[in-house]
Amino acid sequence: MHEFWSTQPVPQGEKEAQEGPLEKKTVDDVPKSPYPIASVLEWWVPDVLESEDDLRQIYELLRDNYVEDDDSMFRFNYSHAFLKWALTPPGYVKEWHVAVRRKNDKSVVAFISGIPIDIAVKPSAGGDAEVRKMCEINFLCIHKRLREKKLAPILIKEVTRRVNVLDIWQAVYTAGIVLPTPFTSAQYFHRSLNPEKLVAIRFSRIPPQYEKFQNPMQMMKRNYAVPNAPAVRGFREMEAGDVPAVKSILNASLAKFSVAPTFTEEEVHHWLLPREGVVFSFVVADSNNVATDFVSFYSLPSTVIGNSKYNELNAAYTYYYSANTVPIKVLMGDVLSAAKAKGFDVVNTLDILDNKEFLQDLKFGPGDGNLHYYFYNWGYPIVQPKSVGLVML
Ligand SMILES: CCCCCCCCCCCCCC(=O)SCCNC(=O)CCNC(=O)[C@H](O)C(C)(C)COP(=O)(O)OP(=O)(O)OC[C@H]1O[C@@H](n2cnc3c(N)ncnc32)[C@H](O)[C@@H]1OP(=O)(O)O
Ligand SMILES: O=C1CS[C@H](c2ccc3[nH]ncc3c2)N1Cc1ccccc1
Predict the structure, then answer these.
(1) Rounded CA separation 342/30 (Å)
(2) Which of 64, 118, 190, 296 is the most core-located residue (most Cβ within 10 A)?
(3) C-beta 44 within 6 A of ligand 1
(4) pLDDT digits over 259-308, tens only?
(5) Alpha carbons 183 and 351: distance in angstroms, whole number
(6) Which atom of ligand 1 is closest in space to residue 141's alpha carbon?
(7) Boundary-marking domain end, from 178, 207, 235
(8) ipTM value
(9) pTM given for the model
(10) Domain containing 206 — which CATH number?
(11) Ligand 1 contact via 171 beta carbon (within 6 Å)
């Protein structure tokens, strides 16, 4: 059971592991050369920032081979612009974008990415959080034709080596599957904006109690209708001038959670300023035009696999927020209006952060997907998802 993960510094499910590092090594212990790989394959570092063609190759691998739901009805379809954004935050390390190509035709067959992140972790016994520089791992993907050949452990060991050689010893990551050992498990929730399309692609179905109506779909549309203008006075798109205020209120909000990132001003600028078709952010400005509240969401479409009428689902995902002068359910209500106005079909979220405070009132329904959160080389007790303030793209 877990031939690879049983060899790794992750909690192995025995008694509560002690909190903190599970193994201690130094940079001198780290091999200086890349991990060995099959002779027909080669390691490759794409230049996602400067080479549109390198970015396109990573985009296409993920478009055709990345995460699907259990019934293979949908597959994430992260856009070019989204991947460039997700992979190149301030201080990113090019070599942590680890790809594998076939030597003969240079086709990309696998990928895994790491980016730097400062994570504040609170000791379970209480007390001040410890801020730790970690690596956030995402986009692990092996081409469908190369599955179940133990290539994933090789990718994981190589990215670990490239992170360790820079004296970073912890990572954080999420997965839809259960591995040794989650520190929390979150549940997906979905808020329909375009019920007709969601029923047509068989993501949603008309609830049986609607059959009594003369026009069930009309009633569903009415149930999920949202205002076409924001309710909150002073609600507007975030601008560069809001960065200092947003940094201040967001870091203060995230400090309440047991596990959450901290953001520098440059990171607020990168992660939270609006980017066309990628990330959408808004503030509530007071009479001096100073941001008192903040809310955001990102665009992550999914390919609809094998549907004649629609081939893409336009999904928005709630991102970071700081609700101070208005309740989060009022602020998130304006997010629903903005997402509907921009043509999104559904808003997805997890029961992390304070999200449970708006799920019911805003008519989010539970999905059948879970997202498990993990640390690498850091023992931590299992916490509830509402203690977690980290959003993974
Ligand atoms: C300090 C720095 C540390 C940095 C590293 C921190 C750790 C980062 C860890 C990665 C975080 C990724 C975060 C995300 O991106 S989560 C998204 C993962 N990607 C997908 O689901 C896309 C579609 N699936 C695939 O591309 C492949 O099925 C993948 C690549 C997922 C596995 O390939 P394949 O199916 O061909 O299998 P194999 O024969 O090569 O390898 C089998 C071994 O791999 C273990 N496995 C399977 N799925 C995952 C998974 N999602 N995380 C970790 N381990 C996984 C599995 O338990 C088994 O080990 P063991 O059970 O026998 O022990
Ligand atoms: O495209 C994919 C692949 S896996 C992920 C996902 C997550 C939770 C889900 N609950 N029901 C379907 C589903 C799919 N997902 C996004 C998604 C989310 C809701 C509806 C359709 C697709």
Answers:
(1) 48
(2) 296
(3) no
(4) 999 999 999 999 999 999 999 999 999 999 999 999 999 999 999 998 98
(5) 14
(6) 26
(7) 178
(8) 0.99
(9) 0.98
(10) 3.40.630.170
(11) yes
